[in-house]
Design brief:
Elements lengths: L1 H10 L26 E4 L2 E6 L9 E6 L10 E5 L4 E6 L4 E6 L6 E7 L9 H8 L9 E3 L5 E8 L13 H8 L7 H11 L13 E3 L2 E4 L5 E4 L8 E6 L3 E7 L15 E6 L2 H6 L3
Antiparallel strand pairs: 1-2, 2-3, 4-15, 5-14, 6-13, 6-15, 7-10, 7-14, 8-9, 9-13, 11-12
Bound molecules: zinc ion.
């Protein structure tokens, strides 16, 4: 904090810009500080401060973690290639699905933390939104027709909600391959690993983030190579306390996995800006 004050006082920086509301800086620093992004570095955060063409060059400053407040913290879960993972999200928090290398179809599920029979349901979204392709601003509803997440950021703009999660029979019946890794097993493994008892419930219908399906005018379904690039992300805001789960889809036998099967990340924060700017 002393270093921040020193920089501002000594360099005579005078920035006429708002302080982002997500950062608890007002009590300790001038309101005119603007932070385009912050990155965790050791005990603190490295931020880039700019005056946007006014009287000084952009400055790099350090902020102690203690002045960041809770809002900018990130809970980050790495989902390894062809595996699954889960993360808890409180109502109002943001959940980000981050494609690390690009081109990775990610089966995503969300359900009520207090009631595992209450799940995100893409088919109910279809008739709720009268579309089969979700967009920023859409609320995805549950099997009880109440919003569970709202899409607030989308770098790709094209996903899939039609195709069920792959299971062992998908590989066996359609490709003649037995024992292939699959998203349904990944879901169960991830739930077990995090101590959650899914019981005998079926795996919910997924939101296939970064999957590039297309429906022709005659109804034919076409699987296309995903277009997401490294660092692309889709961010949702939770409308209730949820558990989110994701699988790095192991499908390597068609266009869906044509760019290789790679890691993804699940990130949760109170701050949308933090998730929008977090680096791979
Ligand atoms: Zn899959």
């Amino acid at each position: 904090m002393a270093r921040l004050a020193y920089l501002i006082e000594d360099r005579g920086i005078n920035l006429d810009l708002p302080t982002p509301k997500d950062f608890s800086l007002k009590a300790q620093s001038p309101d005119y500080l603007y932070m385009p992004f912050l990155e965790k570095q050791g005990k603190g955060y490295q931020g880039y401060m700019t005056n946007f063409g006014k009287t000084c060059e952009p400055q790099i400053i350090w902020l102690e973690e203690s002045i960041m407040g809770k809002s900018a913290k990130i809970n980050r879960v790495r989902v390894p290639a062809a595996r699954g993972g889960t993360i808890d999200v409180k109502k109002g928090q943001y959940i980000c699905v981050l494609d690390i290398e690009g081109g990775q179809c990610t089966d995503f599920w969300a359900f009520d933390r207090k009631d595992f029979d209450h799940v995100m349901s893409p088919v109910h979204f279809f008739i709720d939104a009268m579309r089969i392709q979700p967009k920023v601003g859409d609320k995805i509803v549950t099997n009880r027709r109440v919003p569970i997440v709202t899409i607030v950021h989308d770098d790709v703009g094209w996903h899939d909600m039609l195709v069920p999660s792959c299971d062992n029979l998908r590989y066996e019946y359609h490709y003649g391959v037995k024992g292939h890794r699959n998203c349904c097993d990944n879901f169960h493994e991830a739930m077990s690993a995090s101590g959650k008892d899914w019981g005998s419930r079926p795996v919910p219908h997924p939101f296939n983030i970064f999957m590039n399906t297309f429906v022709k005018g005659d109804g034919t379904l076409v699987l296309r190579v995903p277009t997401s690039m490294a660092g692309d992300r889709l961010i949702m805001q939770a409308e209730m306390d949820i558990i989110a789960a994701a699988s790095s889809c192991p499908m390597d036998l068609n266009e869906t996995g044509a760019r290789g099967i790679t890691d993804v990340e699940l990130l949760v924060s109170d701050s949308l800006e933090t998730l929008q700017n977090v680096k791979i």
